[in-house]
Amino acid sequence: MKCELISTLKMLTLVQSLGLPVVSTSAEEAGYKRSMDEVHDGLGAYSPNFEDHPAMVLVGDGRSGEWSRFFGFPSPDRLMQQVNTLQAARTVAAGG
Fold first, then answer.
1. Average pLDDT for 38-64
2. Same domain? 23 vs 37
3. Can you give the residue range of the structural domain that contains 25?
4. How many domains does the chain have?
5. Does the structure show a pLDDT above 60 at 15?
6. Which pTM does this prediction carry?
């Protein structure tokens, strides 16, 4: 299982894949803010100033669509525990 940091564009794509509404992005600041507001609202982290949202880490399996959200800065051990849980679920789903 691959771990990676998610860019804003990937985050928008993820939110769209989860069926959450996202305003189309544009080069204009207003369009960008609306899009980020939609993303943060969909993730339960809305803030009037989109740059002041709470810190969070998403850990998930893009294949199964299962995602976990951690607010703040969880320990590496806690994140790896979730990665291992997802890895085990994938193994079970594959019949192994």
1. 79
2. yes
3. 1-54
4. 2
5. yes
6. 0.57
